[in-house]
Amino acid sequence: MPSALDIRIPLDVPAGEQERYRENYRAITRDTGRLMLFAGDQKIEHLNDDFYGEEIHPDDADPEHLFRIASQARIGVFATQLGMIARYGGDYRDVPYLVKLNSKTNLVKTSQRDPLSSEINLVQQAVDLRDRTGLTILGVGYTVYLGSEYEPVMLYQAAQIVNHAHAHGLVTVFWMYPRGKAVKDERDPHLVAGAAGVAAALGSDFAKVNPPKADGKIDAALLREAVAAGGRTGVVCAGGSHVDMQEFLQQLHDQIHIGGTVGNATGRNIHQRSLDEAVRFCNAISAITLDNASVEEANKICTGGRY
Amino acid sequence: MPSALDIRIPLDVPAGEQERYRENYRAITRDTGRLMLFAGDQKIEHLNDDFYGEEIHPDDADPEHLFRIASQARIGVFATQLGMIARYGGDYRDVPYLVKLNSKTNLVKTSQRDPLSSEINLVQQAVDLRDRTGLTILGVGYTVYLGSEYEPVMLYQAAQIVNHAHAHGLVTVFWMYPRGKAVKDERDPHLVAGAAGVAAALGSDFAKVNPPKADGKIDAALLREAVAAGGRTGVVCAGGSHVDMQEFLQQLHDQIHIGGTVGNATGRNIHQRSLDEAVRFCNAISAITLDNASVEEANKICTGGRY
Amino acid sequence: MPSALDIRIPLDVPAGEQERYRENYRAITRDTGRLMLFAGDQKIEHLNDDFYGEEIHPDDADPEHLFRIASQARIGVFATQLGMIARYGGDYRDVPYLVKLNSKTNLVKTSQRDPLSSEINLVQQAVDLRDRTGLTILGVGYTVYLGSEYEPVMLYQAAQIVNHAHAHGLVTVFWMYPRGKAVKDERDPHLVAGAAGVAAALGSDFAKVNPPKADGKIDAALLREAVAAGGRTGVVCAGGSHVDMQEFLQQLHDQIHIGGTVGNATGRNIHQRSLDEAVRFCNAISAITLDNASVEEANKICTGGRY
Amino acid sequence: MPSALDIRIPLDVPAGEQERYRENYRAITRDTGRLMLFAGDQKIEHLNDDFYGEEIHPDDADPEHLFRIASQARIGVFATQLGMIARYGGDYRDVPYLVKLNSKTNLVKTSQRDPLSSEINLVQQAVDLRDRTGLTILGVGYTVYLGSEYEPVMLYQAAQIVNHAHAHGLVTVFWMYPRGKAVKDERDPHLVAGAAGVAAALGSDFAKVNPPKADGKIDAALLREAVAAGGRTGVVCAGGSHVDMQEFLQQLHDQIHIGGTVGNATGRNIHQRSLDEAVRFCNAISAITLDNASVEEANKICTGGRY
Amino acid sequence: MPSALDIRIPLDVPAGEQERYRENYRAITRDTGRLMLFAGDQKIEHLNDDFYGEEIHPDDADPEHLFRIASQARIGVFATQLGMIARYGGDYRDVPYLVKLNSKTNLVKTSQRDPLSSEINLVQQAVDLRDRTGLTILGVGYTVYLGSEYEPVMLYQAAQIVNHAHAHGLVTVFWMYPRGKAVKDERDPHLVAGAAGVAAALGSDFAKVNPPKADGKIDAALLREAVAAGGRTGVVCAGGSHVDMQEFLQQLHDQIHIGGTVGNATGRNIHQRSLDEAVRFCNAISAITLDNASVEEANKICTGGRY
């Protein structure tokens, strides 16, 4: 894993921001080069579907649950909208934040209209919040729907966001999702690899992709093409839907050690649990991601043991 | 109810505006944390339908009726368009105002085209009016139609409005309405909760939602999911269509004490009455909202008694 | 009729421009509070249909005809596009002007596409022309098509125009026309009243509406709802299509004295006549509008007598 | 023909630019008030259709052919895109230029989509090029497709261009073409007159129209309505498709002396010939336009004689 | 081939940037007036299709492969997105770069929607990167889809890019592709010539076109019309799909010596090979392009010999 000196600073980070970029990169990867991103942008993305329902712990009904987890668990960064950070950040100053700059609800389906998730906050607003409050804002995030009829809007905003974020020493994470009427199989490994490559061409530091599938099944080895296509842009994998914790950790371990990813972005799989369980699960994920822990060791963390 | 010290100031309010934001928040909630918003934006939203007709008192035909009520009744804030405030505000300097920043007519139905209500005035213009005239402008309002094909435009404007309003110490109230071809049931409690959660993610101080229904019936308990999803964003409920005053007050009481809302936004139900009756009804609503009055006590105010 | 002191200056007129606004308002209403607007924006709106044809006097073929009338007749203000004012205004410096800021041709019908009339000149350009040349530019005008699918564009531009115009002491006149696939009856009195109310909510000083009809017939009493809905926004009525002069004057008289309007906006009905007849008819209209002349007196002016 | 003192300077030309505007107007009309515009914008408008083919002289295949003609022939102004002027203008400093600010190809037909020709260069860029290089840039040009569903875009850009061009002392020429699904007969004399009137309302100095037709036949007298409608905006006529030179000159003579136009805009009819023939034909056109030469005299110039 | 003094500097290059433009032009053509452009923008344009698959060497899976080739082979310039240059450029400072300013994926086909490739980075951002880092950024590139319903957007951006690029001394290369529902035959020689002519009218320094075909067959002589239409805008030809190296070199030789092109733009045909073979093939292409080498000599370079 990289020492601080190994961090390659992209050239669009100006001299005066290079030290900050390096520190942000170190912080977001906890000096490991690996990213454990706790995703909490679903209040717009999925409305209340991820926060309230039969299989969801009541703790999750309150948005503050996300901040409690982010504060108590070991994470690389907590991704959510600027409005949420502004509202709760004052009470959770220890949390490392990533401002998710665009979001859309899930109401309009692709069958009705291709997806457009447009910027709702500007990089400059994230920078202003950081600079005025001293909050630990390490980076910004953005979702790109490749293959949407609105792709030109999102490619433009994405490239601009990299440029503006790097200009202020911020790390970028892009959610790269092929989606739209033109996209037949969002999980096709070759297409997922293409998505990682687009993130590289846009200059993003990290690209989150969904786990590719062949014949309808996930297989960590299928990620290798994406990891290669991403080049110096680190590929991390989505945590996906609610599954068995042990299975989840095994998949994550495989993604990293077989697929070659450099981390994960996990949301509802963490926060739909009680605070205590969420923190332990989060820590288990971090152990695998950041410490190269085995699945067995991580499982112990889940069940309350330490390793 | 919160004392001044309990008001949590979001971090997007800069230091130099925090005192003003706190004062505005106290004023708009009359030091109770609860919001009694008198809504008067219908001259665009509903054209003349709310102001002239069989069941409507002739007093309501004149726009000044709204200002007379706002001036004589006890309210938290009077919401209307900037043009109206500029025209009448000079004669009603005692009224606390909230500038409704977007509006659309009801002519184009969702079956023809999904709703787009776009900004017609900018936060800066509300700020300029306040700063130049000394009017008591406490906040700004905005309607978001979630699930509309134009949702990206409104999410963007909404997030920007929170940022700009807070930058100038103004309180924000968002009308959160799921609407569009993709929305099958606007009153679904889970969807209404999602709408409240979006307001939270956008960073708004208050979210006005329509009363949720299950099996076609309203039930104040259905609001609890929305109130939880809103978190620190206060959820207030729409006053809805013209109903019996007593029934209205009972519903409002239930919304607050069963549903957990922190207030109401009521418009035509107030202003379609004669000035005298409107003021009394308004005061009844305020008694429940701001003073925790019982329905009985409030009814007395309606009928002209005091409690 | 109002003395200068009675003019209510809206609050979006800054202190430094209030005297100018008051003077402009006095001038445009010729100290009567009533508006006689001579409309000459049809070269874009109706192409050459209003200027050349069987029933049209040859004088009208030349655009300068409009300026000759405006210069020789007694009017409140002459409304036309900035380009026209720039071209002819140097030779007609005595004419009071209102810059019509948007225009569209009549080629694309509503059955093909809903109407969009977008700004072609900015308030600032009208202000610059006024300030640089000393022309008497008293106000600006704008058409809003309520119920069009492009309504959001026009509501935005309209609200901005009021704000910018008042910021520079200019009076605003809005043409408020319900039109589009969603509009079944443009002349419905309740809808026309709604249109007047929108102008009030936008903060315009005057709203021009088309004469409402019930059962296909105009009736000045139908205007009362609109006049009430407009509140402090003065409602003036369109002159409409070419009709008998005497009938026209009777209708105008009824609009004012029965309907409660504060003036008229008349175009082709004036300029399709020879210069001499146009001037006399214009003066007759002004006599009714500005002097409370009787129809009989006005008719005398038409026929060349004086009263 | 006007002396310099007769040139009416529109009021949107600021005092500091009036002398330049007058000089530009004199130069573009060669002190005659008449315009001989050599149109060379077809490389975008018609792709290579006008420059290469069976009836076209090989000289025309090279874009420099246009500049050679413009340099050697007697013209009022040569209209082409800024990119062309920037590329060749250094070698053709004697040519008077007009920057054509918008252009589209002919690939998308009206049956597929209504025409939109949007600005590709800004007035300011033409001004910068003039001021930095000392090139003789006398004016700017723009095409308006009236009746297109994109008409609002073009009316806006057109009105802005007049304002900006006059602000910098530049003369404007507008190509006024009714076109779109809503336009049944582009050559209808009444519609062509309407187009000329729109140019007047936009404030353009010149309007180029296509020759109107009645019953499918051109007739110079049909132009009179357009010339009247243009008022002080000079109407010039399109040179049209490749026809017999003598016939062309007769038509031009008729347009001016019967129709009342003040010039012509001719492109492919000139440049599809050999350099020598093109120059002679160009000079013949100029003789009629600028010198009131007879058709006979002009024909002599075509055949190489002088008159 | 031109000496430095022969380079014609377009007039939109200001005096202070002329020396830089001349140096950039010399560098990009390696003092020959010919352009050997190594195209590496396919990570967005073609996703991972060009980088991973049966016929593709594994070296190509890693984006750095492109930089290794660009660094080790003899090229005029390496074209790729700004994000890629920012990420890898620090380790490949010897490479001459051209920033490709727009890109789209190949997911949405023309049958679904006409192509729009919109700017993702601005000329100013390329300039800033150059000026801050000292990287050798010689120019910018842009793709124009003529005949697309979005043509107006791209013509505008293209003309603006020439203006801004030249203002900063940068050379421009435009990919000129007729494409859209309106385009029946993208390879039609007359249409390809039209595309070259548009690039000339836009003022670009170079235009890349696809090899025209007659009766479905390419023929270098068909390029002559395009080369003529381009005028002083140098026409270079696309390298096209993966073909036999020798055949490729023969075609290139014919394009230059029969068709009159001034170079080539080649991408996947180079980088889908192993590093060693790619470098040799690249050098072979450069030998033909820059040194007027024969096909035989170039083939020797491919096979590892020198000539």
CATH class value of chain A? Alpha Beta
Q: Kindly give the count of domains of chain A.
A: 1
Largest sheet of chain A: 8 strands, parallel, barrel
Number of helices of chain A: 12
Strand percentage of chain A: 15-25%
What would your notes on this structure say?
Five copies of one chain form a homopentamer. By secondary structure, the first copy, chain A, is of the alpha/beta class. Chain A has one domain (4-302): Aldolase class I (TIM Barrel, Alpha-Beta Barrel), CATH 3.20.20.70. Helix content of chain A is 41%, strand content 16%. Chain A is built from twelve helices and ten strands. Chain A has an eight-stranded parallel beta barrel, surrounded by eight helices. A two-stranded antiparallel sheet of chain A has the order 7-8. In chain A, α5 links the parallel β3 (97-100) and β4. In chain A, α9 packs parallel to α11 (275-291) and α9 runs antiparallel to α12 (295-302). Chain A is globular and about 45 Å long. Chain A starts with 14 loop residues before the first helix and ends in a 5-residue tail after the last helix. Chains in contact: A-B, A-E, B-C, C-D, D-E. The C-D interface holds C 41, 43-44, 47-49, 51-53, 61-64, 80-91, 103-105, 107-109, 112-113, 116-121, 125, 129, 132-133, 135 and D 8-12, 14-15, 146-149, 151-153, 155-156, 158-160, 162-163, 166, 178, 180-183, 190-191, 193-195, 197-198, 200-204, 225, 228-233.
Relevant terms:
homopentamer; 307 residues; alpha/beta; TIM Barrel; eight-stranded parallel beta barrel; 12 helices
Write the layout of secondary structure elements.
Five copies of one chain form a homopentamer.
Chain A: H1 15-28, E1 35-39, H2 42-45, H3 64-72, E2 77-80, H4 82-88, E3 97-100, H5 123-133, E4 137-146, H6 151-167, E5 171-178, H7 189-202, E6 206-209, E7 213-214, E8 217-218, H8 224-230, E9 234-238, H9 245-259, E10 263-266, H10 268-271, H11 275-291, H12 295-302
Parallel strand pairs in A: 1-2, 1-10, 2-3, 3-4, 4-5, 5-6, 6-9, 9-10
Antiparallel strand pairs in A: 7-8
